[in-house]
Structures are given as C-alpha cells and as structure tokens.
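User: Please run a holo structure prediction.
Assistant: Happy to. Please share the sequence and the ligand.
User: Here you go; the ligand is zinc ion.
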Amino acid sequence: MARKTVPAGVCAFCEREVAAAGMTKHLATCAARQAAIDKAEASKRKPQPLYHLVVRDAVDGTYWLHLEVAGSATLQDLDVYLRAIWVDCCGHISHFVFGTTRYQELIDGFFALGDQKSITTKAVDVLRAGLKGKYEYDFGSPTELKIEVIAERTGKPLTTKPVTLLARNLMPAQVCVECGEPATHICMQCYYEQGEPGCYLCAAHARTHGCTLYGGPKRRYNSPRTGRCKYDGPAKPPYS
Ligand SMILES: [Zn+2]
Ligand SMILES: [Zn+2]
Ligand SMILES: [Zn+2]
Ligand SMILES: [Zn+2]
C-alpha cells in the first residue's frame, strides 16, 4: 500500500497553495510575509526571540502547521492554540515533552514524577532552533503531535497574540469507499479493525454504513483528532 501523500498547504500571508515539502522555503522568501514583518517592526511591540515551529501529527504527518511563537509566550499559550485549531474534544489533559522534561499543569499536592515543569514556562526558556519535541493530548485515546523548531529570529511579533499561524495543510482529499464521491465521514470501527488507509464515506453512505461501535461514522475535519473521542471541530485557529 502506497503511503498517503502529504497534502499541500496554504501560506497565511499570500494565500498561495504550496507543497508541504516546499513551505519552509516559501515562507523564507514570501514577499507578503516580509511585508508583515516590516509592518510589525514599525509597531511599538517589544523585540524578542521568535520561534518558527512545524507541528505535525505523529501518525504520518498528513496534518501540519507552521507557527511562530513569541519568546514571551508560554507553552500554555501554545497548548490553547493547538487545542483550538486541532485537538480539543472535551478538555482532556495534555503535555509537552522536550528532551527529558515534561511540561504540564502542575497540581498542588501531587508529587512531580521525573523531570517535570509547569506548562506556564515561557517559550524563551524552552525553545531554540533545532529542538524537537512532542505534544500529547488525552492519554486515554491520545493524539500525538511532533514539534520541531526549525528557525529562530529576533524581532517584533507579527501580532499582539502569542502564536501566529504561518501556514497550514489543506483538508486531505479522500473519496467514499462505496461510490468515489468526496468523503465527509470516516468509520473508526473499520479503521481500528482494518487499519490504513481507513474507511472514508460520503454523507449518504455514512448514514447506511452498518458499523455502530464508537457511535458510527464520524464527520471529518482538517484535524488529526478527526474520529477520536467526541471530536466535532471546529478545527479553526483561536485568533488570527
Ligand atoms: Zn506566502
Ligand atoms: Zn474527548
Ligand atoms: Zn465501518
Ligand atoms: Zn458514498
């Protein structure tokens, strides 16, 4: 079985469609992004280290984001962002792991196990170019993301928000296994029983599909959380 092709994405500045593998290079030379940087530099915001992150789902990298995180932001700001754009279904716990350190919400009265720090740690105290780590959401039915800091620059943040979206994958195209029409649903029961590439269905065939475990076929979203737990989108950034 051929590997799924990684879908192209859209640059948040010029809105051009770019292949996943070419997005880093595109962002480095995008005139619209440079104009946004020039505009930010003329603002009264505080110059600080800014980190260019690529975040991918750990399954096969179908879903990917390029983000810029301000040094003054906390890992919790990034957690809030990832929950909004991708993973949150019902407020499960999550953590980041960089090196041997876990960053999570520290609860009073619990002993820290191993090397553990607060998720309110500032990005500037954790991130640096070349660093790789991961993010896990919901330890029962987990969604794992890989994080890579691909670049660091010093400058004024592009917005007043802690995280800026630079680019994002387009919704992966899938067709209904029954009729070949664009698929709006996925059956997780078939997925868990048969594995990749997954049982994708159009709305009509989702209604007549026989599987009942996990509540029947689930709607698809542009999110690696699709089909898991009670995930029902909206898979939108919390702000722009
Ligand atoms: Zn662009
Ligand atoms: Zn849930
Ligand atoms: Zn099924
Ligand atoms: Zn169909």
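The pocket of zinc ion (ligand 4) is lined by residues 176, 178-179, 181, 201-202, 204-205 (CB under 6 Å).
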